[in-house]
Amino acid sequence: MTDLTQVKAEARKAAFARRKAAHATAGPAEAAHLSQVLAGHRGVPLSGYMAIRTEIDPLPAMEEAAAHGPVCVPVIQRLGLPLKFSRWTPGCALKEGPFGAMIPEVDDFIEPEILIVPLVAFDQRGGRLGYGGGFYDRTLEVLRAKRPTLAIGFAYAAQEAEALPLEPTDQPLDMIVTEAGVVEPGAS
């Protein structure tokens, strides 16, 4: 039997290839569905992310949301810790953070109630495969212990997998938004 770490590594490799292909053909309206979802949550503290490599870019939706309430982006403190979130505004000064993601130059930490979560792969049940550091899993566990926290996976439709190798510590997504529409796990 194959080790779960190896199974996850193989699933990531296949998903990265699908994401790269989808990214190469992406159009300018890829965040339209995300903007529509977020419009129903105006003013609620929101975490987006600054896209790296071939991640789908939530910036247009983040810019719209920033006109209505606080928006922040994740800041990695160090391996093994949950993320912190620094307030972001359109056009704010940025610096390079860990793993090459841009973060606000000035730390102004806030706690989001909605997280737009980047991912490598997702499934119809709300499963998410990330990069393997466990940052979002730890963070969602902490935030959800305090209050309801909405985790919105944002991905290309091509990143969908049939079934992901998941562990008990993997936090589920409440919905997944793609350029093609919205997937709500459990809603059939």
TrEMBL record:
Catalytic activity: (6S)-5-formyl-5,6,7,8-tetrahydrofolate + ATP = (6R)-5,10-methenyltetrahydrofolate + ADP + phosphate
Residues involved in substrate binding: 50, 55
Transmembrane segments: none
Enzyme class (EC, first level): ligase
Keyword ATP-binding: yes
PANTHER family: 5-FORMYLTETRAHYDROFOLATE CYCLO-LIGASE, ATPASE INHIBITOR/5-FORMYLTETRAHYDROFOLATE CYCLO-LIGASE
Name the record gives this protein: 5-formyltetrahydrofolate cyclo-ligase
Organism: Roseovarius gahaiensis
Taxonomic lineage of the native organism: Bacteria, Pseudomonadati, Pseudomonadota, Alphaproteobacteria, Rhodobacterales
